[in-house]
Structure of Putative transcriptional regulator, Crp/Fnr family:
Amino acid sequence: MAITVDPRHNHLLAALPDAEWQRWLPQLQWIELPLGKVLHESGAQQSHVHFPTTAIVSLLYVMENGASAEIAVVGNEGLVGIALFMGSESTPNRAVVQSAGQGFMLGAQVIKDEFTRAPVLHLLLRYTQALITQMAQTAVCNRHHSLDQQLCRWLLLSLDRLQCNELVMTQELIANMLGVRRESVTESARKLQKLGLIRYSRGRITVLDRPALEKRSCECYAVVKKEYDRLLPAGLPPGPPNFRR
């Protein structure tokens, strides 16, 4: 896999004011994010925040019996580790890579020091508001909508955080994210494939008809996307930074 050498493929890093960008750049560390890598466990102290560029990270709530369900996804639009600047160094959630890729990380003390600076504070708080909206809408969706609709929402949110229309994902992992049985995911995926919306083969899901997938999804996807679009900048600034790993 080619190394992403531009941290500003992460939209939050791309939106930093120039003064903050120049301070952060020497301290950003490139990191490979393989499938299944745990970035932090529930209740554990967080040493870094992570800014995915080509990876997707799932935030999971883990119950006492070991069962888990996804409450949010983070990709190139944001960061993993908001607890560090929200008054805590740990969180009750587990963060695990659900789609392999790359990203950058920044030390905990660095982000806490920078959060006292107004431009960064406003940017990170807007991202936190968007992430909380996603968490709340996920809870509503899991309670009130069908598994078919939940799967469509999950696929769309994941694709928004990638630069392609293909996901490398097993049905078992999807079931773990949605908190359902693997057989139920298999049945829903077959329906979508029969309708020509996706192609699923050997752990790879390719979206063939995104507009149709959006129509089949519930309103939860549109609510979350609208909030991210409203609160956060999109796209990359012109020209690459002078960054070396």
User: Anything to note?
Assistant: The first strand starts at residue 29 and ends at 33. Strands lie at 29-33, 38-40, 48-52, 56-62, 68-74, 93-99, 101-107, 166-168, 198-201, 204-207. The CA atoms of residues 152 and 217 lie 5 Å apart. Residues 7-141 form a domain with the Jelly Rolls fold (CATH 2.60.120.10).
